[in-house]
Structure formats: C-alpha cells, structure tokens
Design brief:
The protein is mainly α and 356 residues long. It contains 15 helices and no strands. It has helices at residues 2-16, 21-54, 59-69, 78-88, 95-107, 121-156, 161-175, 178-192, 212-222, 224-250, 253-260, 265-288, 297-303, 308-317, 321-349. The longest helix is centred in the middle third of the chain and has 36 residues, at 121-156. It is globular and about 85 Å long.
C-alpha cells in the first residue's frame, strides 16, 4: 500500500508539473520573495525621500506661494498658498502622518503640480522621458557593439599589443569624468570642426519650422555628441568585464578539450567560449536596462537635452519639491527593478544555477 501511494503521487506530479517542475516552483518562490523584499525596500526608501524633502528650508514653499499669489487671476494671498501647499504635501503635519498622506497620493499616481514647470508632474514626465530613453538606448547599443567584441579580442590576444591597447582605452574611459569628455567633444567637433551643435535639441534658426522626418533628422544630429559622451564613459567597464570573463572561460577544461579535439580556433572562441562568456554579461546588461529610463543628468544638462535628467536637475536646484520627490521615487523603483531583472536573468541563462 505504501508503494502504491508513492506511485500515485509521482503520477500526479508528472501530470501537473513540467519535467523541471521543482526548478520552476523554486524560481517562482524566488521571484515572489524578491518582489516582497523590493516592496519593503521601496517603502523605506520613499520614507527617506519624504524625510529629506520635509527637512528642506521652508523658503522653497514660501517662494512658490509668492509666485502663485502674484500670477494673473490668482484669488489667494501668499499665506493662503503656503497653507494649501503645506496641506497638499503633508508638510503641515508630523513626519509620519505627512509621509502617509503623500504616499497615499503617490500610490494613486498623484504627485501634484510641478512648481518649476507649472504642469502636472506626471504630464511633464511623459513629455521628457522619451528623449532620455532614445538617447540612452543609442548609447546602450553602441556600448555593446564596441565593448563586447573588443573585450573578447583582448582576451584572445592576452599580453599582446592589441590587449594593451584595449586595456588602455578601457582605463581611459573609466577614469575620465563626464564633463571632461563632453567638453573635449564639443571643442573638437563643434567649436573647431563645426560638424555638430554644442547645445540644444534642434537648430535654433529652424526652431518651429521643421516637422516630420526633417525634425527627426535634426534631433538625431543634435544627439550625436551626447550619445558619443555616454558611449565613451560606458564602454570602459563593460570592456574590462568582458575581457576578464572571457579569460576565465578560455582557461576552463572544456575549452582545452575542444582544442585538443582539433576544433578550429574560431569555432572554439565563437561558439564554446563566447556563449559561456555571455552568461554573466546578460545579467549585467539586464540590470542596466531600467537605466534607459532614468536619464543622464550630467550629459543632458551639459548638452541642454531636455530629457528627464535635465528636467530633474533644474527641478532640484529651483526647489521643485513635487517633481524632485517623484524623480527620486522613480529612480528607486528603477534600481530595484534592475537588480531583480539581473538576478532572474542569471538564473535563467545559467542552467547550473539553482535557486535555494
């Protein structure tokens, strides 16, 4: 009887679970656990964001209230605006009640009106986010196309002139600050050669005159230098990471076995080695995907690209509390999402990984 019960249970498992059902269940448990942990981290992160904004000097609120009171058609005094703004964001309460007041609105997607841009925060966000996304996407693709092949090439020619050249390029890319790279590119390609515009998103003399595909080409022309800046800054670390992982794979036993069997070197590198090098690379690249939406604050500001980074920078320096709180919360969500994507991808692409 005991054996029969065990057999029936085995048959049930075979019907309702796939061949690797245990692994699937573990993976689902892992994802649920990470999601719950991310919610807890997000809650405390948003509390810290509110605490930071709550302790800013009240001059920001007072200045905004005075500006609203002096606008044409305003029927409220500056003091009435101060009271309304404090009530709207829970600044007239204690930290804990005020935080839950703001959080209850944030969960519903209500972040208030931007003090700097005088439109709803989410409306301003939807207006500027796609400029940042496409700029970051172009740089992201260029980084992969340039850094991964060069990293593999440097590993296959270890201690050669090629390896040293790639290493030097990578170290330069890692070491140089963004503002320095942007300044050099603007000086060479804009000031000296005159190939590109140093600032802005459209040509000043053609502003408002271009439409459709002509406007798109003009914007793309202005995106060249910012995209080059982001690419130069980003390829160094990815190049070094690719080289290190490729060297580790090339020293593995199965690579030596493949070579001993007489397989061509290009097949050993291109098929056996590179495929396994991609495993850690996929996790790194997967974790960086949410960064496509976070904006490049320094680069966008230096080139006057009106994306989310540029907008958040000027919101911060001008005391735009509603937009600043939204941007910090948005960046926190992207960071948690990137970490989760990286962990999941690592478990998916590497069959040797088992989630315990």
């Amino acid at each position: 009887m005991k054996k029969k019960k065990t057999s029936n249970l085995y048959q049930i498992n075979q019907v309702f679970l796939p061949p690797n059902g245990g692994v699937v269940i573990k993976m689902l448990k892992f994802i649920v656990k990470r999601l719950l942990l991310s919610v807890v981290i997000l809650f405390f992160s948003m509390f810290l964001i509110y605490l930071l904004m709550n302790n800013l000097p009240t001059s920001y609120v007072e200045r905004t209230a005075r500006e609203l009171a002096t606008q044409p058609g305003s029927q409220k005094s500056a003091q009435q605006w101060i009271e309304e703004l404090n009530k709207q964001y829970g600044l007239d309460k204690g930290v804990i009640p005020g935080f839950f007041t703001w959080l209850s609105h944030a969960i519903q997607g209500e972040f208030g009106e931007s003090w700097q841009w005088t439109v709803d925060v989410t409306e301003k966000f939807s207006e500027v986010i796609w400029y940042s996304f496409f700029l970051a996407l172009i740089a992201f693709i260029l980084e992969i196309v340039i850094a991964v092949p060069l990293g593999v090439l440097a590993a296959t020619k270890q201690y050669s002139v090629t390896d040293y050249t790639v290493t030097v390029i990578a170290l330069i890319g890692i070491s140089m600050p963004t503002f320095f790279v942007a300044t050099v590119l603007k000086y060479v390609f804009a000031a000296k050669l005159g190939w590109f515009e140093p600032f802005g998103m459209v040509t000043a003399r053609l502003a408002g005159k271009l439409t459709g595909f002509a406007w798109l080409l003009d914007v793309a022309w202005h995106f060249v230098l910012p995209a080059m800046t982001l690419t130069i800054i980003g390829i160094g670390s990815l190049m070094r990471y690719t080289r290190t992982n490729t060297l580790e794979v090339l020293n593995a036993d199965y690579i030596r076995t493949a070579r001993a069997k007489g397989l061509p070197e290009n097949k050993v590198i291109g098929y056996h080695a590179f495929r396994n090098t991609l495993i850690p690379l996929v996790t790194i690249l997967g974790g960086s995907l949410p960064g496509l939406f976070s904006g490049a604050l320094i680069t966008e500001t230096l080139f006057s690209i009106r994306g989310i980074g540029y907008t958040s920078y000027y919101s911060m320096i001008n005391g735009d509390i509603p937009f600043t709180m939204f941007y910090l919360a948005f960046s926190t969500i992207l960071t948690l999402l990137g970490t989760l994507i990286a962990d999941i991808l690592y478990a998916v692409v590497d069959p040797r990984v088992r989630v315990n």
